Amino acid sequence: MDLPDIGTAAGATLTIDQELIYGDAYMRMIRASSPIVNDPVLNEYIDSVGHRLVSSANDVKTPFTFFMIRDRNINAFAFFGGYVALHSGLFLHAHTESELASVMAHEIAHVTQRHLARRMEDEARRSPATVAALVGSLLLAIAAPQAGMAALTATTAGSMQASINYTRSNEKEADRFGIATLARAQFDVNDMPRFFGRLADEYRYASKPPPMLLTHPLPEDRITDTRERAQAYPPLRVQPSINYHLARARIVARQAGIKSDAALDWFERTARKASPKIQNSFEYGKALVYLDTNKLDKAEEILTKLLDYDPNNNFYLDAASDLYIAKKQPEKAAEMMKSALLVKPNNAVISINYANALIESDKLDEAIKVLQRYTHDRPNDTNGWHLLSDANIKKGNSAEDLAARAEIMALNAQWISRFRCTHKPVSLRNLEA
User: Fold this and answer.
1) Where are the beta strands (DSSP E) in 182-287?
2) What whole-number distance in Å separates Cα of residue 433 and Cα of residue 431?
3) Could you read off the pLDDT of 388-424 as tens digits, one per residue?
4) Is there a domain that residue 327 lies in?
5) Are residues 223 and 348 in the same domain?
6) How far out from the chain centre does Cα 98 lie?
7) CATH number for the domain including 426?
8) Over the stretch 79-111, which tens digit does the pLDDT of each residue have?
9) Which residues fall within 8 angstroms of residue 351, CB to CB, at 6 or more apart?
10) Degrees (nearest 5) of the Cα angle 430, 67, 117?
11) Do 222 and 344 fall within a single domain?
């Protein structure tokens, strides 16, 4: 006999369909107001980890979207409609993929257990105006984005996330479901209390703790509880994830806001005490620094070795495409991406790099064809629309350019604006930055 679904109640106040609508609207405003990381390789990586967890989670009722915000502060949050945001600073503090996954699993549990909706239902019992205030804020945001964003933050994900996270029962429930999800997804469950404990120790006496500890307090009893739960699972030996360390290296090289010399020094120092299994990640990081500082021969030497070792790795392929475009050899980049698509048909990273190389090669009709399929399959990815606009400008298709830019504006909640007739073409590397 099926037991009643107690943990995910809240349908009386807010339906799943309403959550999806509100989540989509809030995501559009976040794109307009926050430094979203539009990096195809990093997006593919966090998406793969996130959906590995979602496939092992209970009570999944919405699709999930994972995205990254460029911010060195440690933080993560979730809101209506299955949206989970990670700060890039998480990668600077999480030592393993399982530590990163433990944060993501916790946020996934906030969504699956409908903590925001349950909080709203609780508020609605005391004040029937709560839902009306949320809807009013969203409508105001359409007409006046800045005022609407402020009002929305006061009633939904921003302040509500903070308030639910201060609710000890919700935090413990998210930890409990999160650990179960980690175990089923074959991550190391002990990395949740290990990561939480290290953060608590590091910032115990800090006058200004990171945002994650303000919205996700780590009292000793919570760390102890997660440690005891983790110890109840059989030990699991998890090998270091090269893709996690490649993503981490990419963030150090391009998203951490440090100078190239400091990044190279970090790669050298960290590599000396790291496992041999992840040494290629530090070489990759150095190659990105060399590429971004126009030391192309040094970048090519490293990337050639990495591709010889792992020719189908998207981190390496993406960097090689950038390299050949920088060397004024876009045809070589396009040919490499075309061959890679035979191995990984319709892959997002390879497709967007292929389209970019085709544009740089002035093969505009081919590029537009690739990008039309890309934007059809991934309508919420602004990278595709930016490149489609760029290709149509070069082709002289003003109507198609305007249509692509309209999609970008809609994704960024720019409902009331005026098109300009001039538009400077953008490169994929600029979009990633």
Assistant:
1) none
2) 5
3) 999 999 999 999 999 999 999 999 988 765 555 445 4
4) no
5) no
6) 16
7) 1.25.40.10
8) 888 999 999 999 999 999 999 999 999 999 999
9) 337, 341, 370, 373, 374
10) 150
11) no
Which of 19, 44, 71, 175 is catalytic? The answer is 175
Query: Is the residue at 326 inside a domain?
Result: no
The residue out of 231, 265, 290 marking a domain boundary is: 231
Residue 301 annotated as part of some ligand binding site: no
Question: How many other C-beta atoms lie within 10 A of the C-beta of residue 326?
Answer: 19
363, 222: one domain: no
The DSSP code sequence of 46-93 is HHHHHHHHHTT-SS--S--EEEEE--SS--EEEETTTEEEEETHHHHH
In the chain, the number of structural domains is 2
- Out of 210, 231, 252, a domain closes at 231
Helix (H, G, I), strand (E, B) or coil at 217: coil
For residue 96, what pLDDT is reported?
96
Answer yes or no: pTM beyond 0.90.
Answer: no
Domain residue limits at 374: 340-433
Question: Is 93 labelled a binding residue?
Answer: no
Burial class of residue 416 (count of CB atoms within 10 Å of its CB; 0-12, 13-18, 19+): exposed
| Domain shared by 166 and 21, yes or no | yes
Give a yes or no: residue 373 inside a domain. Answer: yes
Interhelix angle 97-112/191-202, nearest 10 degrees: 100
> Do 389 and 359 meet the contact criterion of CB atoms below 8 Å apart?
no
Active site residue 175: yes
Residue 291 lies in a domain: no
Q: Please check if 95 is assigned to a binding site.
A: no
Single-letter amino acid, residue 407: E
Question: pLDDT tens across 122-145, in order?
Answer: 666 666 666 666 555 555 554 454
Q: Is 390 helix (H, G, I), strand (E, B) or coil?
A: helix
356 and 223 both lie in a single domain: no
CA–CA separation, 429 and 135 (whole Å): 38
- Identify the active-site residue in 44, 99, 107, 432: 107
Shared domain check, 216 and 349: no
